[in-house]
Structure of DUF4405 domain-containing protein:
Amino acid sequence: METKRTPVRRTTINLLIDGAMFLAFLVATAPHLSGLAIHEWLSLALGAALITHLLLHWNWIVQVARRFFGKASWTARLNYLLNSLLFIAFATIIVTGIMISEVALPFIGISIARDDFWLGLHRMASDATIVILGLHIALHWSWLVNTTRRLFARSTRKAGRSGATQPATSQESTL
Ligand code: HEM
């Protein structure tokens, strides 16, 4: 049977990806706790997730980029600037991380002579990203709270309804 891609399903996917990226970023900020291998592989995976994230929001990116100098609201403009900064800072972390890599790069047979310039930049970009990410989350706070509430309310309602009228096996359909 055909399964429809509803907006709710898409929102759920966005929320899950955003949440997973945020958690992975938190772990990445503490390499001394996680160990270097986890730090490097997880961060590289995070880079891949960022590309997915950008593709999922591509329509929004194109729309605001077009309207940036025209009719866009100031919030949308601020969002766009902040997201661009976030992207630049994050890309810097990944590139500099690769330059100082002690696990992932040697794993594929490449070794680069250590240069403290890259480490300094890696630290700076990481600190900047924490600040920008804080602002990014603050700007999206109502979306985050409302969406999470709606999704929980919806799944609780559906679970209650199908519990009352259908056998437990048919509960998969919703989000
Ligand atoms: C979300 C992405 C990342 C964040 C937030 C991040 C953050 C950090 C932080 C805060 C440190 C500690 C610096 C210090 O000792 O003061 C560090 C160290 C390090 N990072 Fe990353 N990093 C990220 C991605 C990467 C990637 C993709 C790689 C390599 C593939 C990498 C390789 C390293 C290495 C090798 C060190 C240890 C440097 C040393 O102390 O000798 N990082 N990172």
The chain is about 80% helix and 0% strand.
